[in-house]
Amino acid sequence: MDLLNPGTGLIFWQAVIFLFLFLLLAKFAWKPITESLRVREESIQNALDSAEKAKAEMEKLQADNKKLLDEARQERDEILKEAREIAAKMKDDAKEDASKQADKLIADAKLAINTEKQAALAEVKSEVAGLVLNVTEKLLRKKLSDEKEQKQLIEEYIKDVNLN
Amino acid sequence: MVMIVTIVFSCLGMTTVRAAEGGDDFKPDEMIMHHVVDAHSWHFWDGHYGTLYLPVIVYSSDRGLDVFSSSNFYDEDHNKVSYDGYVLNDHEHIHLEGSEAKIWDFSITKNVAMLFINAIVMLLIFFAVARGFKKNEGKAPSGIQSVFEPVIIYLRDEVIKPNIGHGYQKYLPYLLTLFFFILFGNLLGLLPGAANLTGNIAVTLTLAVFTFIITNVSGNKHYWNHIFNTPGVPLPLKIIIVPVEIIGIFTKPISLMIRLFVAITAGHIVILSLIGLVFIFQSYLVGVGSTLIVLFINLIELLVAAIQAYVFTMFSALYIGLATEEHHHDENDVDTGLA
């Protein structure tokens, strides 16, 4: 048979066999194959999509958690700050109270001391008055006996008084 | 495996060459043509059982339909004889003795037998692949399925989808059948003793005609408008352009037909010529050298087998894509959508 002259018989058989082959393969091979490929690709795509979604959800959750954590931290800081302020205030108050108390005590003490001092002074005064009376009495008595002696005696007494 | 195939092929080439040698002088052109073209018998090796005589189916208006074995054309000494008025000439054409009447030869020739083998191999393989998909539903592919799945996906995503675009699913079965038919035909044709199926112009012609029919049947308004009323071309030029466009409808399938036929047949001729050298020179040195080169060419042929199947499918997809394209990039056309 010729190389360049197509034989009618072969064209006929080629057409018939190719058509049958095409129909059989299209129905029993290509259709299930492409269908399965499509289904598989879809399921892969779905899996990828849901993974993406899960990731996004996870991220959202994480963000929420972080937000909550931040809020909690802030709250804690605030509470701590408040507590510290209260403590400081309490301390200051206590200090103030203590100093007030101390001042009052001191003032009371001063007052008591003054009172005591006044009392002592009054006593001293009355004592001195008594002494003066005594000395005067003795002077008067001595004057009556001897002037010289009287003077000496007065000086002596004054000296005593000074000692006191 | 490739090496084994090549070596077996080379050995078989030599034995068949000896057959072609016949008597005293070796005629390389006859030997090569004998291997490349179609025949009514399938010669494997010399001897009584080495040839498979295929059925002859002929129809003529004079004699009606006749079916008989092609062995009837040969006597015990393998000389050609006429049978029942039918004569088989040296070009393997059958005609009626002493009559010019047209004979329709629908014989199961070597290539038709090869066609059946090719079809059966394809059916077995792709039914197995389809079974694999059914069996492994929702699971990873296994076995033969994982061999062909990437090829199918590659063809779909890299060849068919980009060339046809929207609505490619409709053409997927045809183009997949086309690709694997050519690929398997090419590969089977490389086997020792196999027929040169995809290197036969009748086969490539038929395939090209299928693509031609599908392209023009699915051609839309834009496609025909582009041919008969090419937009953006002034009227005087249209007188030249339109015939060129009309010729273009036919040159596309013709180029498909010739490309595959030439690529495969040329490869076979090169291999056979190199083997023929051994018998012309009858030297060990040429034998060794020739065998090495034949091995190398055979490896290239494996590559060519895949490339030609790819190219035929790719161009078929491209032609269909051009015919079904929705938007044309014309100056007159205001493109509103995405091209």
Order of helices and strands of chain B: HHEEEEEEEHHHHHHH
- Find the structural class of chain A using helix and strand composition: mainly alpha
Biggest interface between protein chains, with counts per chain? A-B, 35 and 50 residues
* Number of helices in the DSSP assignment of chain A: 2
Backbone CA Rg of chain A: 63 Å
Mean pLDDT of chain A, to the nearest integer, reads 88
Q: Which percent range describes the beta-strand content of chain A?
A: under 5%
Structural class of chain B: mainly alpha
Give a brief rundown of this model.
The complex is a heterodimer of chains A (164) and B (339). With 164 residues, chain A is mostly helical.
Could you characterize what this model shows?
The complex is a heterodimer of chains A (164) and B (339). Chain A is an all-alpha fold and 164 residues long. Chain A has one domain (8-127). In chain A, 95% of the residues lie in helices and 0% in strands. Chain A has 2 helices and no strands. Chain A is rod-shaped and about 195 Å long. The mean pLDDT of chain A is 88. Chain B is mainly alpha-helical and 339 residues long. Chain B folds into 2 domains: 55-107, no CATH class; 110-324, no CATH class. Chain B has helices spanning 2-21, 28-36, 110-135, 144-164, 172-189, 201-217, 221-228, 235-281, 284-324, and strands at residues 41-43, 51-53, 55-60, 64-69, 86-88, 94-96, 103-105. In chain B, the strands form 3 sheets. Chain B has a 3-stranded antiparallel beta sheet with strand order 4-3-7, with no helix packed on it. The radius of gyration of chain B is 24 Å and the shape is globular. Residues 1-8, 11-23 and 330-339 of chain B have low confidence and may be disordered. Chain A binds chain B through residues 1-15, 17-18, 20-22, 24-26, 28-34, 36-37, 39-40, 43, and chain B through 33, 36-39, 57, 91-93, 104-109, 111-112, 115-116, 119, 122-123, 126-127, 129-130, 133-134, 137-138, 149, 152-153, 156, 169, 172-174, 176-177, 181, 200-203, 205-207, 210, 265.
